Amino acid sequence: MQNGKTVVIGVIGADCHAVGNKIIEHALKEEGFNVVNIGVLSPQEDFINAAIETNADAILVSSLYGHGEIDCRGFREKCNEAGLKDIILYVGGNLVVGKQDWKEVEKRFLDMGFNRAYPPGTDIKLSIKDLKKDLGLEE
Amino acid sequence: MDAILLIDFGSTYTKLTAVDIENEEILATAKDLTTVNTDIMIGFNKAYEKLMKNIGERKVNFVKKLACSSAAGGLKMVAIGLVPELTAEAAKRAALGAGARILGVYSYELNKHEIEEIKSKKPDIILLAGGTDGGNKDCIIHNAKLLAEHIKDVPIVVAGNKNANDEIEEIFNNAGLFYKITENVMPKLNTINVEPAREVIRSIFMQKIVEAKGMKNAENFINGILMPTPAAVLKAAKILADGSDKEEGIGELIIVDIGGATTDVHSIAKGDPSKPGVTLRGLQEPYAKRTVEGDLGMRVSAVSLFEAAGTRRIKKFAPNTPYDVEERCKFLQQNVNIIPQTEEEYEFDEALGMVATEIAMERHVGTVESVYTPMGIIYSQVGKDLLNVKYLIGTGGVLVHSRNPEKILKAGLFSMESPNYLKPTNPVILVDKTYILSAMGLLAEEYPDMAVRIMKKYIVRA
């Protein structure tokens, strides 16, 4: 059953981890989302352009190679510029290198304007639950 | 004997080709100046007389007379989409594939200034796209409203988000516009679907544009002006590559057409990465792709060609030319009917042709970029990989009349100087010596098998 919501997903930056990306696509489709997967090696602009054309409700950004913080800077501002004012932005994966305190890392991404950030090893089901809540599909 | 007459009402010349049906041979060709400003039939009749003279004693009965046209400025179009790299680009490609000359590409919500600009460009058809199916519809509806309000007399092809179609229909009906709705040029993100829009554009061209350009009286004599000339060339290219029902094609190919005003490149090829480990990115490319470079031409666009290439790049192909490159280009642009006579003039024209080919190919083919990642270098490709295309075919006056077409076309091959352009590495180089490609595109409408066989016979090694 389609739930009527469109989500853009992809792997940001010079990152070519394709497996998790496919799993996320599969899991979201199972839950009835219309998934627009822009794949690996995707710059911010590609996420944003895809979201404009498809009238997406949310963008889920993956980053597995530790450069997520650099790649994600300015993402929210660009969305605002492009007219995607209230679009929901999630980010997850191996966002930073080294053993850093997750709370601090999370705060950095939330400060950048992401609605939610997920640490390594998060079950996609958890993110989907949050997404449904944020989109008003579930309590 | 029974024959078919194929006519190309070109921007400068009206070209006729007579094909013997029984023996599948070109009986004769002839051309004369196009006379679209007075009566298109004057030039046609002159060419026809020459053709009959060339055919000579034999008695010929033309069972079919088919035409294509790029006279009176060709088919001029404006393409409108949402995001420049996505639906606006897809719309542009659909229009190019339909054989149009693109006057402008617009994206996002139009403003009044842009609407005025579109109006002043006087397009023959406007292609309106925007949004994937189920995606954004605000933009295309906004643009439809503005068009309905300000532009009344231009046919519009709607090929955007299907969810917006009902509303657009209402807007255009209320305004009394002539429009046609067809499938989305980009139904899903990065997936293009240009064929339905191309077909609708062609049908409007036949229905409306031919008449608007004062060519209706030609239709009393011939069976119809079926398509714009570039669409006929693309059609010929496609059937030559893929074959017809009974006749096998020759496989993936590229056609380069260098003209006085533009350089066209057509490729019939999938363009998937030919090397392992390459990630394909961006908007999908049409299998039959046409690009037009309005700034690369031998005469009318000689100065813009100079501006695009610069002296050093042109001199690379003519190192000892006595001319000042810029001056010579200006001179050629002012004297468009010049035909080279001396060795120096030949050499310079050849160099211009080579530069035009080189740059037009660079703009047509895909590129590969190396991306440095923590896992090492990986490659990312945008556009078509044409490294392994089997044939490179030259057409158009410059190449057909050149003494050395192979040399000119070779400027379009892969080069280690710029290895990220995925140009063909080692294709067989052919030349459309009898200048029949557009005619064969027309013939293919009625006799596809014969068209393939004739092209195989007449398009020869350079």
UniProtKB/TrEMBL annotation, chain A:
Catalysed reaction equations from the record: (2S,3S)-3-methyl-L-aspartate = L-glutamate
Residues covered by the B12-binding domain: 4-138
Cofactor(s) of this protein: adenosylcob(III)alamin
Associated pathway: Amino-acid degradation; L-glutamate degradation via mesaconate pathway; acetate and pyruvate from L-glutamate: step 1/4
EC number: 5.4.99.1
GO-annotated biological processes: anaerobic L-glutamate catabolic process; L-glutamate catabolic process via L-citramalate
Residues the entry annotates as binding adenosylcob(III)alamin: A14, D15, C16, H17, A18, S62, S63, L64, N94, L95, V96, V97, G98
Binding partners and assembly: Heterotetramer composed of 2 epsilon subunits (GlmE) and 2 sigma subunits (GlmS). GlmE exists as a homodimer and GlmS as a monomer.
Family: Belongs to the methylaspartate mutase GlmS subunit family.
Name of this protein: Glutamate mutase sigma subunit
From TrEMBL, chain B:
Top-level division of the source organism's lineage: Bacteria
Lineage, uppermost ranks: Bacteria, Bacillati, Bacillota, Clostridia, Eubacteriales
Descriptive protein name: MutL protein
Organism of origin: Caloramator proteoclasticus DSM 10124
InterPro entries reported in the protein's UniProt record: MutL (IPR006230)
NCBIfam families named among the record's database cross-references: accessory_GlmL, glmL_fam
